């Protein structure tokens, strides 16, 4: 039988070292949400606007954790479940040294969601979720006669944390500073071609100048256009 892999948080300190907080029971629920932000590019004569990528949005995660200390008894002198939960509650508290909540990594097993991304995404694969904890909901379910909490469900919300240098290394964006060519199709405009290659409709004049086009309204299908890089 394979060894049970417990989920845990690495909690990084100011000096680069870290503490580890391990869950009592593995999560009963784990979800991720990764949005992208786009803008509508309106071009006269088209049936609908074009979509232009603006930027990626913050990926968020939500994890639900269960804690129970009834094994040590439920009567007077019972062990409070907060002896386990307070370490996780602390992830959303401000560190007096850094004046911010700590940077963490959520880790669970070897086959973490995102570790099998296709090769075209470069080194954006991950084996853990680097994050800051933005919300901790504590739901206490059972108490001893003297009011000691014995059972709890915690829901933690995590916001992805990726510093600039790591984003640049992960994306490995390919340079667009090379000249390309385009065969003009029927109905295409320079604004449309500009959006396709230069990601901005306003740079159509750059293409017109490079190709000696004086009247962009009189384009011939089949014309070979040169798309030089923006300087």
TrEMBL record:
Transmembrane segments: none annotated. It holds the Pfam family CIS_tube. InterPro entries: CIS_tube_prot_N, LysM, LysM_dom_sf. Residues 180-227 form the LysM domain. This is LysM domain-containing protein. It comes from Rhodococcus wratislaviensis NBRC 100605.
